Amino acid sequence: MPVLARWIEAAGIPTVVVTMMPAVADERRAPRVVGVEFPFGHAFGMPHDKAMQRRVLELALRVLAGAASFGTRVDLDVEWPLPLREAYRAWQPKVPSPIVRKLLEARAQAST
Amino acid sequence: MVVDSYRFLPRSFRPFYEGRGPYPGEESPVWAPFEKRLSASRIALLTSAGVYLKASQASFDVGGEQSNPEWGDPTWRSIPATARPDEMAVAHLHINDEDVLADPEIALPMRGLAELVKEGIVGGAVAHHVAVMGYQDRGLEDWRSTTAPEIVAHLRGQGADGLILAPA
To answer: Is B34's CB within 8 Å of A54's CB?
Structure first.
C-alpha cells in the first residue's frame, strides 16, 4: 500500500496512507502517513461509531492537505475501546490465510 | 502519542514487516504538493479490504491465492460513492470480514466523506472510489506495470485532487 501511494504520488496526485502499521509505511517511504492503533481491517475505527470514524477521516484530510513535506507522519491518539485480547482475536480470519498457513507448515516442518 | 505498529500483530509475524526498509528502487522521496484549499478539492478513497459490488462485479480471485499463497489478485474495482452497504461484498483471506460487512465505512468511509462535503469542509468527493485486495508485498510487478497506472488514470478521470489510501 505505501508503494502504491508512492506510484500515485509520483504521477502527480497527493496521497495519505491511513494505517495501523505507520512504522512500516514510514520505512516504505510513503509521502504522508496517519497512524492508528486499531486492529487490522479497521483503519477508520469501530463499526457504526461515526464520531470515531470522523476523527480518523478528518485527521487524514488534514495531513493530506496540510503536510509541508515528504515523510510527514501524524498518529491518532485514540485507544481501541475493546480489551486487547478480544480485539486481537476478533480481527483474525477464522481460517489462517494461505501465506500464513504455508509459513506455519514450514516452521512445523523445520522443528521436526 | 506514538502508535505501536505491532500491537495487534501476532508476535511471530513481526519480523516479516519490521526493519525491512524501502522497497527496492523506492528509496527517494516522492512529493505532489496539495495546492488547493480542502474546501475546493475533490477527494478519492482507496481501500485494500477487497470490497466489491456483489451484483455487478466479479469477486477478487481468492481461489488463485489459495492455490498459490505467494500470489494475490492485482485487479481493482471502481466503487460508486452511492453504493449501499448491503450491495457490497468482501473478498479477503487475511482478515475477519464481519466488521467490514457490518459497516463498510471502517474501510471505505464514503458516507463520512460525503457528510464533510455537505458541510463544506471538503469541496467534493469522486463519483467512484477504488477498492483493491491487500497483503501483496510479494510480486509487485503487475501493480507497477498495470494496476497503478490504471488507478491513476481512473483518479484523473474522476478529477481527484487527493487520495486517502487505507490498507486493511
So the answer is: no
